[in-house]
Structure to design on (748 residues):
């Protein structure tokens, strides 16, 4: 009697099975869940035998395939295992595949209990396995009927092969016995004889073999086998009998007991074949058919070795000889092409294929369409490359055929390629493709962009060759009694030395006005200045001058602009001078040349670290930045010529300390924020260089010495002294905090 209780749960597609079985008598099978399929994950199955005292339990392991596992720390069979327990002790523990792994039981291994109780447990872990599990026969024994039958056959003298007995496996049970068969066999209707399971097999591979069961040992009794070999239309099957051929033959009547036959397609079935002579003398037999049937019959007596038949597919030959296209080739090259062969046509470099790229040999011996041609690849005239802004004229090739090239260069020393590729080639798809490294990706098919070189300091010009000396003195400006927006003790710049410095005329009075601020050109149409300059005026009133050296002289080098867009930081004013930044979008692009060029914005971490390197006095870095403008000089007059000064940055914590110490008592709302930086000589040193009134909005730049490029790090914002210079320092808007904001509004 077998009592089986199962609980099956599905959790996240994982089958978890538990089983508890109690067996009190009888015979049967123990099988892994799903046998002969995958037994699943997280299984824990237990069978408990408790038969009558005086009986014993015999386990016969017929098939065993459990995931193998072994670890020097965890031991053998620590994942999936089958365990037999007797008297509370492990009698044996198995995993692996019978016939392959040392931890697996032997084929048909017998395990016999010493008493009437035995426990069998099967466990699998949570790891999936393709193993097929096990099948174990159990028997409660009282007498050995199988042994009696074996002795009957052993000692019979006449007609021993007519005795019906278990010719594979015999199994005793209390009061009875039964027979079972090895895998691949089935029990005959007499319930004793095992015969081969060989009916209905279909073989479709290009080559293979057919054998009788257990060849070349004895074939099974009562066999009625049928195999079919099937090929596609266009296939002719060849067969031959090889190695040993041995089928029972009556000495007088021939093939009346056991025999084999074959049939080609719909043709007649062959004569019966038996004995020891191979059909066709073991040579290949061409059937001229795409289907072959093979039959085998045996009776109850006189089994012999049987036969082995090999087969192969012989394919139809395509008769038409293939020729490669002009300016092309065909692969693979063979002396003969047969059914289902596929060839590929390719064109030589510089040519493109017109027609079907592949052809197939069909079952009728003809090719699929092979009307192909290799045409020369020619690209269209590259008109999109001929009018790139700020680029030099393009020297196009005389032909636009595959492999033709041209190169784009930017015009003059003041423009550089910022994205796309410089070199282009006519590619194998008939399109112009990049033929050099792409500097940076862009949205215009990587057609190159030429933009002004930023941060390149001017070489300067002799001012006497450019201007007549102005006799107009500068205007005396008295410091006003407020916190100063503050170049004193600097130098007069050479013309074009700081080409990004802009003069922002706040009320449209002209370059000679005293109501102005500084600014910095960062692109051909964008000027950065201070928000505290622009909030006191209107966009329509502002004029911007570039290329200015002397404010009271206008010459052919000075460029004048109106402002088409004005952007002031929306957070400006909530804390005094915090977010003190504004952008002026010019009404037209500036003409880039000797006297007008943009400054670089500090985008990378290295570029943004230049002031810190200066504070740290790091080797290989400039120790000072440069501030430039037309503000109040040390004599109290507004400068006529562009002045500049080199000043050191001040470490932020030191600046905060100085700021709090020198902040006017009335300026309680003012504080130093992370959007500000300090620069200047904060001690009485005699150097006393500083920015001053009129320099507001102007640039504070630091040089990357390795590339000789200047980067805009500060915008002149305000100072903490009513006088500029000795002992004073300036507060600057920290530009690196606003790169994203600038990019959102910047125009080229």
């Amino acid at each position: 009697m077998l009592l089986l209780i199962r609980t099956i749960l599905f959790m996240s597609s994982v089958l978890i099975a538990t089983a508890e079985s109690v067996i009190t008598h009888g015979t049967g099978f123990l099988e892994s869940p799903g046998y002969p399929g995958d037994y699943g994950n997280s299984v824990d199955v237990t069978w408990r035998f408790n038969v009558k005292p005086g009986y014993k339990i015999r386990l016969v392991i017929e098939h065993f395939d459990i995931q193998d596992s072994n670890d020097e720390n965890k031991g053998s069979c620590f994942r999936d295992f089958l365990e037999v327990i007797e008297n509370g002790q492990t009698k044996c523990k198995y995993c692996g595949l019978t016939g392959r792994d040392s931890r697996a039981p032997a084929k048909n291994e017998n395990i016999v209990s010493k008493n009437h109780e035995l426990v069998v447990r099967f466990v699998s872990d949570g790891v999936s396995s393709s193993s097929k599990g096990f099948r174990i026969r159990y028997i409660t024994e009282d007498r050995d009927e199988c042994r009696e039958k074996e002795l009957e056959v052993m000692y019979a003298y006449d007609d021993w092969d007519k005795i019906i007995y278990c010719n594979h496996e015999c199994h005793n049970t209390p009061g009875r016995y039964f027979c079972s068969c090895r895998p691949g066999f089935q029990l005959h209707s007499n319930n004793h004889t095992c015969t081969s399971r060989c009916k209905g097999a279909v073989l479709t591979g290009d080559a293979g073999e057919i054998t009788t069961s257990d060849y070349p040992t004895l074939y099974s009794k009562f066999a009625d086998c049928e195999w079919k070999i099937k090929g596609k239309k266009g296939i002719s099957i060849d067969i031959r009998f090889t190695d040993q051929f041995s089928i029972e033959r009556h000495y007088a009547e021939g093939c009346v007991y056991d025999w084999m036959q074959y049939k080609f397609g719909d043709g007649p079935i062959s004569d019966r074949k038996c004995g020891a002579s191979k059909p066709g003398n073991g040579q290949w037999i061409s059937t001229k058919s795409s289907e072959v049937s093979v039959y085998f019959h045996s009776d109850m007596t006189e089994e012999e070795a049987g036969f082995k038949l090999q087969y192969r597919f012989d394919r139809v030959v395509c008769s038409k000889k293939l020729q490669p296209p002009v300016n092309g080739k065909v692969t693979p090259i063979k002396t003969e092409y047969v059914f289902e062969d596929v060839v590929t046509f390719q064109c030589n470099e510089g040519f493109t294929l017109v027609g079907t790229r592949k052809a197939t040999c069909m079952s009728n011996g003809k090719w699929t369409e092979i009307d192909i041609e290799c045409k020369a690849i020619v690209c269209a005239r590259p008109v999109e490359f001929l009018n790139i802004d700020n680029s030099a004229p393009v020297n196009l090739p005389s032909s636009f055929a595959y492999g033709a090239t041209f190169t784009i260069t930017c015009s003059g020393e003041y423009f550089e390629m910022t994205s796309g590729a410089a070199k282009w080639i006519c590619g194998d798809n008939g399109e112009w493709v990049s033929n050099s490294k792409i500097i940076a990706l862009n949205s215009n098919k990587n057609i190159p962009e030429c933009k002004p070189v930023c941060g390149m300091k001017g070489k300067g010009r002799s001012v006497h060759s450019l201007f007549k000396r102005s006799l107009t003195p500068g205007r005396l400006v008295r410091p006003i009694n407020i916190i100063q927006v503050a170049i004193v003790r600097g130098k007069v710049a050479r013309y074009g030395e700081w080409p990004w410095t802009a003069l922002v005329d706040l009320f449209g009075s002209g370059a000679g006005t005293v109501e102005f601020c500084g600014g910095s050109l960062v692109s051909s149409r964008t000027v950065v200045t201070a928000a505290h300059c622009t909030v006191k005026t209107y966009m329509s009133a502002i004029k911007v001058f570039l290329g200015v050296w002397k404010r009271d002289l206008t010459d052919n080098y000075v460029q004048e602009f109106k402002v088409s867009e004005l952007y002031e930081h929306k957070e400006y004013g909530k804390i005094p001078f915090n977010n003190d930044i504004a952008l002026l979008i010019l009404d037209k692009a500036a003409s880039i040349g000797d006297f007008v060029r943009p400054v670089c914005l500090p985008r990378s971490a290295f570029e943004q670290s230049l002031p810190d390197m200066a504070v740290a006095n790091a080797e290989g870095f400039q120790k000072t930045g440069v501030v430039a403008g037309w503000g109040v000089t040390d004599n109290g007059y507004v400068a006529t010529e562009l002045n500049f000064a080199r000043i050191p940055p001040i470490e932020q914590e030191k600046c905060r300390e100085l700021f709090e110490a020198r902040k006017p008592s009335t300026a309680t709302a003012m504080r130093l924020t992370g959007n500000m930086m300090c620069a200047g000589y904060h001690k009485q040193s005699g150097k006393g260089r500083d920015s001053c009134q009129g320099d507001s909005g102007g640039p504070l730049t630091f040089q990357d010495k390795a590339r000789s490029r200047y980067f805009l790090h500060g915008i002149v914002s305000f100072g903490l002294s009513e006088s500029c210079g000795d002992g004073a320092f300036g507060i600057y808007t920290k530009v690196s905090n606003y790169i994203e904001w600038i990019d959102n509004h910047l125009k080229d």
Remarks:
- The longest strand covers residues 235-246.
